[in-house]
Amino acid sequence: MKERFASGYNDFVLPFMLSMIFILVYLLVAIIRVIIQLPPKDRKRYLLSLINPVILVKDIKDIICDVLLHVKIWKRKPLLGYMHSSIAFGWFMIILIGHIETFLYVPERAGLLYYPIFFRFFMMETNHTLQGALLFFLMDFFLLVILSGIALAMFKRIRSRALGMRRTTRTTLPDKIAMYALWAIFPLRLLAEGFTAGISGGSFLTKSVWLLFSNFLSNDYHILPTWWAYSIALGTFFFCLPFTRYMHIPTEIFFITLKNAGIKSWHPRKGYALAEIYSCSSCGMCIDACPMNAQKKNLKYSSVYFIRFLRRRNRRKMEEIADKCLQCGKCVAVCPVEVDSCRLKLLSRERHRDGKIKADYTYLQRVNTVEPAEKRPKVLYYAGCMSQLTPSIGKAMGSLLDKASVEWSPMDKDGGICCGRPLILSGRREEAQAMIQRNTELILASGADTLLVTCPICFKVFREEYNLPGIRVVHHSQYLNELVKSGALKVEKEDTRMVYHDPCELGRGCGIYEEPRELLSKVCELVPAGHERDESICCGGSVGSITLSHEERVHITDAAVEDLMTNHPQEIVTACPLCLKTFSPRSAKKVRDLAEVIDRCSTSPEK
Amino acid sequence: MIDFGYGLTPSSAIDLDKMDRTHFEILIRREPDVLKCMACGSCAASCTAGVYTTMNLRKGILLLSRGQEKSALEQFRSCMLCGKCQLVCPRGINTRNLILSILKTYSIQ
Amino acid sequence: MNNRNVVIIGGGPCGIEAAKTLAKLGHTAFLIEKEPHLGGHLAKWDRLFPYGQKADEVLNKITSGLENVKWFVDTQVTSINRIDKSYNVILGNGMSILADAVLLTTGFSLFPAEKKEEYGYGIYDRVITNADLEHYFAEGNDHRIQYPKKIGFVHCVGSRDEKAGNRQCSKVCCATAVKQACEIKEKFPNSTVYCFYMDLRMFGRNYEDMYLEAQKKYGIIFVRGRVSEVSEKQDGTLLIKAEDTLSGKPLRVSLDLLVLMAGMVQNSDTAKFAQMLSLNIPEDGFFQSKNYFTAPGVSSKKGVFYAGACTGPKTLPEAIAEGKSVALTIDEYLL
Questions:
Q1: What is the ipTM of this complex?
Q2: Both A417 and A499 in a single domain?
Q3: CB distance from A390 to chain C under 8 Å?
């Protein structure tokens, strides 16, 4: 290979070069801005993480898996995963191989940004070209991979369902311009390289194009315009980048390093949140995930639009979505970038609360719900507010604890203090401290070493926000499983087909998926629901939503029940009083709590 | 005016003619569910805070709808937003947003 | 005289009355009942408001004169197909009838009280329903009723309740509750009886007298407030939480027996028949008449008629009267 031009330059590289300089400066400024916005503690943590080899290895691994290969999308939707990784990885490889070629053949040009991109224009084939055949082949191969991805992307715009997505995001004008530019880049590159292939050489793809065109377009005048067009397409794409969803491509790399440093958002729009917002690729996976979209009119409340309005500083619309959200966490679970939009919505609630009447919880100091027991209980059972309305749970729990000869005492038999989670979910974290403080006092005073909870909403807050030294907080699905495993409870398998519903706060909220399944499979035939574990559909009763009306919630409940019925179970089992209470009136099949089922199938080991 | 040491006792009756509904109209816009209450008292009966304080959502809604803001508002300060009332309400009123909307709309002098 | 076939689906008081009248008008009436006996809910009731008349007396009167009606009990309707102007009704016993008109008198179902978990029906031993209490009055035994000293009645269980999926008032529960409250007081004169109501709907003639008597003669204590929670104490007695809305204070009372006044909901078979005959059913699940005033028994399909509680909660006299009158409507149609 040798250079065609002594200058190694042509005017057509200008659109690309200018846009590249623009985007690099923009990114540098943005990164510095985010780092400055981080609270000092987080900033220190971040900078330290950059010299920590363990985190760095994880950073690199995550960047390869998430940014280039899109492993997370592959796992859920293979075809969609192929679409994303073919473009991202293919493009990366073309750039990489371009640099290798430049380094091998014209090391003196290695510093020029445009050279590897427009390599075939500046170089010509010589007799020794065969040495580069492999590189030539790889270049064409990855171009073909990208083109297949682009073809899929075009097809997805027409029929998203074919790629496993029922609904796809509404695009904005800048998004559209950048999208068409992106679609144009690679066919134009093929064309440009095809026209030049007679001079610069090529492989199966570019050479074929040349052979085809040289039959009727032998004129060399076609070369320059196509390279111009290719450069302009690249320039348009990079100039538009900061104003489009494609900003996620560079941001995500930075975001991964922030995330791996263990930083979390503390403000809905600053610092870490800013990196999250720009890392959102608007892929729309969260649209299908959102339980509210059982009604088409609720599509506008999907997380992707929340992020979009957050980015545009549209406070009214952003708040509207934030207040509607069920906080079920499904959009976060399916998000390929792991944008914690639920947390951002909660932060938005915390920030935009303008009440004039201040809460007063001083009365809680006078509340004493823990009965003075003769013997200090080992287990303190906190049923929670919702369980007061589902007496079946409390009754079954009492019976089970007695069967297993556990020393226990109730904490709120006749009504207690709320755990504080509903208040936190309404954006009132500070106020919730009053409840947390008083409950902590009561729990510590009881002398128990285990706090048993039947409500996942309470469970989550006890685990995350309470400081209970020496006390184990345990959900009844875990506790009953332990009792059965240790032989404190004897169970017998019955001949019932059951389906287990993962409550949001227990599954996605606390990561408990296995224990209830392990326990249930010992007493019944467990059949899978349509969507399970981290893809389970919210029952619709969530206290996470502020503005969702009963009429709207009913549609979510019905959709969730239908999904649970996929494999025709005889009963629905859940592990949350709110799910139970929400499902029960809308389900033709009996809905039960885990405790009821175990109580029905268990005996005391002595008898 | 000469102060004779006594004056007219203000009437304790609710005068609907002189009722100021400005705030209540705002409240209706924020949470239309406030109009759905049929005063069954389920919310007040199951209220976690109501056992220890004067918190009574049914009464609060009634008084606000009659323009009796003074006597209605104080109670809402003790609400823990636990959502039990929302679960028991037979009309499916979104009580949590209703209470949050009351806190936003009104102020205590 | 044209002698036509009419199939009446549902052998409650309304269906029986319609069948008898159609037979008298010279038609062949086929009365189909899925249960083992005729009479519907009436057959399961002990006494009737407002006069306390025995339900079996009324039922005997209604079922007399069925000689000219071809009636089938324990019989399901398998399918209905339209053939020209008539309907081919195929029954579970293998029979098929070519009917010139089909009358739906499918009535109502009682709201399944266990769906309201917070009341503890099926969970606590001392919680029963209005139907259970009638059964007790008729048969005289129920292990859950052991000389109760304090008894409570909860009105509107599954009625006027969006959460339970039934917005409508069931019309008869208020009067039934007051009737049952008086009856149980009569049975256990030393007991205290409470009625927890949202609104007392005493709309009929002499209903108000019954209410007055409940207050004056029986000393029933009326509490205006919907029960929100029921919990069970160690000794098995129940703790009831409600708001005494008239005094504006939360109220608690412990009881030995709680009676849930389960309301009327659409018959569980309504959807089945709606599908067979391609009839539209509105949100509340009851059949919709063509016109509430002028064509109460007429459906949207030619030759298909409604009467009784299948078009919404009705009192017994209303259901009987509708059965009689729809017979005339059908007779006119068949002319």
A1: 0.89
A2: no
A3: yes
